[in-house]
Amino acid sequence: MSATVEPGFELSGERSKIGPFLKDLWRSRGLLQMLAKKEFIGRFRRASLGVLWAIGLPLAQAAVIGAILSLFTRFDTKPLSYAVFVFAGMLPWTFFSGVLAFSTTSIVDGSDLATRVYFPRAVLPLVSLWAGFRGFVPAVGVLIGLAAVFDAPLGIDLLLLIPAMALMIALTAGFSLLFAVLHVYFRDMKFIVQAVTLPWFWASGVIFPLVAIRPSIRSWLELNPAVGMIELFRAGLGAPAPGWERPVLISFVWVVGLLVAALPLYRRYDRVLVDLM
Questions:
Q1: Is the link from the previous residue into 79 a cis peptide, with omega within 30 of 0?
Q2: Is the pLDDT score of 274 beyond 80?
């Protein structure tokens, strides 16, 4: 007599509609702001220089990299000085990579809170983004001031810094949401992000102008979503690279693709993510 196979336990949840899901996410903005403020204060609470590290870290990194590279090579970054050129790339890159480092594990790390009360789990990766942006805003002021000191051609192009920051936030949010939900299922995501961060940095044009690269290689580098983000910041300082519109458009396409990939995952698994941790 054949044995009866009992059905196993299947962990699944009701698929949410996109409208109610986004409304729940919007209604949770107060929680997001509260958690972001707590995370932001917690990062710098015991640091002697406090929040100044949010400005000083990318500035110090730009100064060190610029000083070392200037000993071996010379890049033509006119009308920007090389120091401003590097800082304009380092600032959004530091924000982007720093937020990804925290947000990738945010849903798993926030399981204690998530098991006590329901809120959209997408709030958790966005907390790291909003906390990082609180320190980013004054750093933009330092960037503009540094550009003025080094005689950058500042003008109406400064308005491009607004869409540059919007693109940076959207791109970071897209990757954060996708990586965080994938990390719940694949705990290797944290190590994958750590492994790709360094080569990603070198492929993003943070420390060199794209015009210095062979056209055949440049066309591939422009597919990197971080390139458009960085080029838009430099365009805001009055130094747009030739053909900078193409990588910016590619970055916007990346944003759409990331959200299209991430939102269905949260719609499908939002209510069971805690049970999988």
A1: yes
A2: no
